[in-house]
């Protein structure tokens, strides 16, 4: 039995919706404001996640680091502080979105890596609209995965 | 409670998930404990009362209670019923979002950009999801601007009401956590703006446009109206100039 209350489920869904709004805007700002150093950081994180993918590791810390890296690349501390203060909730959300999505770890991590790469590509291209759309699309997929939270 | 339970059951059916009734009841009871509505050491309703409350049979209630005992959340004593474990610490109802203080003009600029992002999204969700009661509250608060509290207070209350109408506690929590930041900017804006031309009328027109877009359930228009309003207010605050009426 999954030890998560209906209250937590609602909270988790609301959190993903909130993250779509906040992180979509952070990604758009990152596309405008990113430095060369930000791109190095983001590429490193993606490379780490791709290595973990081959080893069948979930890479939750790296996943969060990527989202925090995008927020930092916006050069607006308010976006960073939202993610930091929601860290525990975000981890809980990542965990449940992954454990119940019916895919093997390696497939899930591959899908996440592909979606992260789309975000990074748009930030590299300084395409704010594409970065926003890619981040929103990624978090929407995560949110849809939480529909399985009711499985007992 | 029953309404909520049915909504969860429907949602899980819609998601194509097989739903075990006892796990739904277990989740509901666990939430009551974790939210502190059933306080530590208090006696739970009797099995018969729980059957009635959740509209389920006794074996379902017993299964849910057994799962809560396994979690260490509930104690059952022969003949005297079930109790919430004395040591259970209810979780905070929602995680609090915290923000850095405003310490420079650069912070203020970042903060105003952030407001545009977050409040634009809150307005878009409010357009999709608001209830009639939330819309009425929004109209009331828009109409009251300057009538009772200070203009800056009334202005903040409008923006808070938009976040409330999103129905997403994270947006409302953010606006509440940002109250002192928002009031700092609004204090300056209204101090200088109040004496200038049609400042109040322009703000009211902007707020009206946001309410209209939300009422029309037009998410894109609501986002645009909110963002335009905040861009206009930001230009006003950072430069002291009126960049037209912004509409």
Automatic annotation (TrEMBL), chain A:
- Classification via InterPro entries: GntR_C, TF_FadR/GntR_C
What are the alphabetically sorted keywords of the record? DNA-binding, Transcription, Transcription regulation
List where this protein forms a coiled coil.
none
Q: Which Gene3D superfamilies match?
A: GntR ligand-binding domain-like (1.20.120.530)
Q: Which residues form the GntR C-terminal domain?
A: 14-141
GO MF terms, alphabetically ordered = DNA binding
Q: Does the keyword Transcription apply?
A: yes
Q: Where are the transmembrane segments?
A: none
Query: Record's Pfam families?
Result: FCD
* Top-level taxon of the source organism: Bacteria
Cited PANTHER family: TRANSCRIPTIONAL REGULATOR, GNTR FAMILY, UXU OPERON TRANSCRIPTIONAL REGULATOR
Protein known as: GntR C-terminal domain-containing protein
Which species is this UniProt entry from? Devosia elaeis
From TrEMBL, chain B:
Family annotation (SMART domains): FCD (SM00895), HTH_GNTR (SM00345)
Q: Name one Pfam family in it.
A: GntR
Gene Ontology MF: a single term: DNA binding
Please list the residue ranges annotated as the HTH gntR-type domain.
Answer: 19-87
Do you know which PROSITE patterns this protein is assigned to? HTH_GNTR
UniProt superkingdom? Bacteria
- Species annotation: Devosia elaeis
> Which keywords does this chain's UniProt record carry?
DNA-binding, Transcription, Transcription regulation
What protein am I looking at?
HTH gntR-type domain-containing protein
């Amino acid at each position: 039995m999954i030890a998560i209350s209906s209250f937590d489920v609602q909270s988790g869904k609301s959190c993903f919706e909130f993250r779509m709004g906040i992180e979509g805007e952070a990604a758009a700002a990152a596309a405008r404001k990113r430095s060369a150093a930000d791109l190095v950081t983001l590429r490193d994180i993606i490379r780490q996640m791709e290595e973990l993918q081959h080893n069948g590791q979930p890479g939750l810390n790296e996943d969060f680091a990527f989202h925090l890296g995008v927020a930092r690349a916006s050069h607006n501390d308010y976006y960073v502080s939202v993610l930091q203060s929601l860290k525990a909730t975000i981890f809980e959300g990542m965990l449940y979105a992954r454990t119940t999505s019916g895919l093997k770890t390696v497939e899930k991590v591959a899908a996440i890596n592909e979606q992260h790469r789309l975000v990074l590509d748009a930030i590299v291209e300084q395409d704010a609209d594409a970065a926003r759309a890619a981040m929103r699309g990624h978090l929407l997929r995560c949110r849809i995965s939480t529909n399985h939270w009711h499985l007992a | 409670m029953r309404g909520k339970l049915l909504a969860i059951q429907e949602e899980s059916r819609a998601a194509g998930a097989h739903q075990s009734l006892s796990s739904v009841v277990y989740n509901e009871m666990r939430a009551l404990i974790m939210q502190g509505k059933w306080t530590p050491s208090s006696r739970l309703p009797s099995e018969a009362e729980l059957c009635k409350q959740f509209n389920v049979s006794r074996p379902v209630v017993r299964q849910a209670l057994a799962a809560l005992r396994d979690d260490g959340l509930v104690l059952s004593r022969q003949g005297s019923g079930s109790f919430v474990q004395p040591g259970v610490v209810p979780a905070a109802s929602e995680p609090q979002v915290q923000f850095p203080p405003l310490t420079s003009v650069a912070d203020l600029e970042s903060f105003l950009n952030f407001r545009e992002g977050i409040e634009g999204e809150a307005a878009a969700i409010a357009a999709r999801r608001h209830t009639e009661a939330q819309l009425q509250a929004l109209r009331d608060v828009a109409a009251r601007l300057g009538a009772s509290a200070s203009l800056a207070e009334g202005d903040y209350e409008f923006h808070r009401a938009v976040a409330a109408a999103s129905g997403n506690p994270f947006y409302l929590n953010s606006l509440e956590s940002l109250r002192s930041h928002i009031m700092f900017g609004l204090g300056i804006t209204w101090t200088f703006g109040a004496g200038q031309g049609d400042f109040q009328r322009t703000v009211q027109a902007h707020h009206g446009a946001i309410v209209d877009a939300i009422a029309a359930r037009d998410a894109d228009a609501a986002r645009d109206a909110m963002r335009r309003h905040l861009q206009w207010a930001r230009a006003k605050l950072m430069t002291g100039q009126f960049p037209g009426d912004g509409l």
